[in-house]
Write a structure and sequence with these properties.
15 strands; alpha/beta; 6-stranded parallel sheet; Rossmann fold; globular; 16 helices; about 375 residues; 7-stranded parallel sheet
Length: about 375
Amino acid sequence: MANFVSKQKLINVVLHITNDFSGSEVYKNLIQELDRLGIKQIVYTPVKTASSIGKNKLEFRTSGSTVIYSHILNKSFDRLLYRRKIKKIFNDIESKIGVGEIDMIHAHTWYSDGGVAYKLHLKYGIPYVVTVRNTDLNIFQKYLFYERSYGRTVLANTKNVVLISASYKERLLAESSLQKIKNGLRDKLKVIPNGVDRYWITNANRKKKEINKNKFSILFIGKFTEGKNVLQLQAAVNEINKDKVVAHLHLIGGGGGAHHKVTTRVRQNPTTMSFHGKILDLGMLKEYFELADIFAMPSKHETFGLVYVEALLQGLPILYTQHEGIDGFYEEKIGEKVVIGDVAEIKEKLLKLVEDYHSYSIPTEKIIAHHDWRNIALEYQHLYK
């Protein structure tokens, strides 16, 4: 196994604490690339349901690496009683892992995972890094105001803070509860985006697309949740069609709390929108990207949104949200951003995308370099030092 060396300490084993390992391939992709670098990793993931056990399971090359699924959480009390959940996870880690062999902890969320990493740091002196995500800022920090002092302590004691979204940097520094540690925190902040599946890198489309301003196609890919603003997007497309412009919305994905409303509206408006369900075949997804002129996902909140990158790598300008997701990563004009996210604004920005279509500049090679998991894993390797 290839070790990576610090002047202070040899880092042999990294413990990942991640509540959502089973629910997202992002963690799997990162951990897989770190494994290729010869880093020994223990992935600890507490889960709420038995059906989550085994999802995203990895075959490691590095001896001693493993994923530990632990069905200790529930959907009721653990959601409400934050400190109780942290203590439960801490005790479970102590019972299942030889904590003394851990050299570095990566907590993949600020509150849910970072709270546990801080307790392990207090008892064992293990350094840790924390990743700040959408739910940290928009749910925990916003609504668990009585735990903000604990959240501040977690960040005050971490070695580094990883931001998946560049726009989160100023948001985090502006938080009133963090002003006491603002100066020290600023130096810890590292913006490291998520990567995309290698398929999109090897099949990037570098050709400039043409568009018919009177008849164009819009693509949405994602869950049908209230936060994705799918219903507002549908309404905006219908408003555009009232102006004697033919716009068709293609919806891929589904599930989520707004699924019934979204699909009902599709059935009511078959000439302006189509629902294609979930598509897992990347070649088929690529065909839909090729048919589309614009990608639109005006989410209210988005940690990053890999589908934006996939769309850009297929040559599509994007509609996204200010201060969320991909916003702030590229100074190039990659699309239009919504601020309010209501129907009128989404309609306005979609029409602007069409009108100014040839003014958008997609920096394909830069995007490939920024979102290649191999490059990202090297950044984390350096960070763990």
